[in-house]
Known about the structure:
It contains ten helices and 13 strands. It has 347 residues and is of the alpha+beta class. The strands form two sheets. Strands 1, 2, 3, 4, 5, 6, 7, 12 and 13 form a nine-stranded mixed beta sheet that branches. A hairpin with a 4-residue loop joins strand 10 (310-316) and strand 11. Helix 4 packs antiparallel against helix 5 (152-162) and helix 9 crosses helix 10 (292-306).
Amino acid sequence: KSFKSHKTSISNHLLEIHNNHKSTKMKKTYTLLVLILLIISCETVNKNEFAIVIHGGAGTILKENMSNELETAYKDKMKEALEAGHYILKNSGTSVDAVEAAIKILEDSELFNAGRGSVLSNNEEVEMDASIMTGHNLNAGAISGIKQIKNPISLARKVMEESEHVFLSGEGAEDFAVSKGFETVENNSFITERRLNSVRNAKKRDSIQDNKFGTVGCVALDKFGNITSGTSTGGMTNKKWNRIGDVPIIGAGTYANNKTCGISSTGWGEYFIRNVVAYDISSQIDYLKIDINQAAKNTLKKVKDLGGSGGVIGIDSDGNIMMDFNTKGMYRGYINSDGETKIEIYQ
């Protein structure tokens, strides 16, 4: 049974017992028993709830522009990432391990704008950003402008867990990575022919606005009730001047709080920064007491009203999953504690 239905069932059953006893003393005894067992049952059931949700970017993603082979490739890779994270959660692993494992698979794939396959800057280099946040203690780590580290999400986690800082950038972040034993690789190992063609076409048009934001992200809730969110990206095609988007900015692209939810964003970063998207969704749940889906719709409307577009994924403290966007499509999927799997691309 779900958390809420299980709690209601026990509550009703114990209330019936309570009402069947006439004496004041017995009623007091059973009232106390009701409270104790409700607390125990709520804790126990909540620890058995877990889920994982991912995204691989949003934008102008149309069925008519996608071959069957490419669509299958995207879905297979998302399924692989989901199953890797789900396996960890099912076997009582932590949400932070699940998020890192899922995102690394997406970073290593050429299909997405993260890790290998990242879009290129104006000088035809890969500059990657990533962040991760844990909801039980509000700890976070973020990195930007990474050029030589294979899995940026792993470096973001290292910043979170083994430094006194939250956000490191550029050469300093890579120096930190080397000090922690990370292997460096050549920047051209991240570059694909597809992305090289894209940036050269964009330079001809003098354009930086993508019609697809291929950022990857993951949110997971583990059996212990802990939520982790992570996001990784190569940024915008043809970006200049070491531009940084929303992904490594805690509260904009990534946020997690066990009391409310975990969020990972994808879209036109400047608008997600200005609307503090991930934190805004969490705050609405906290202050307005609305559900995660309504909160996401409210925030994405703010983004759209300013002229931006994109999408968000999330999981709230009760294990409810959200995948919302205001574009033509978003690569997305989830697996819950019942093993129910859903992977979608189009609107």
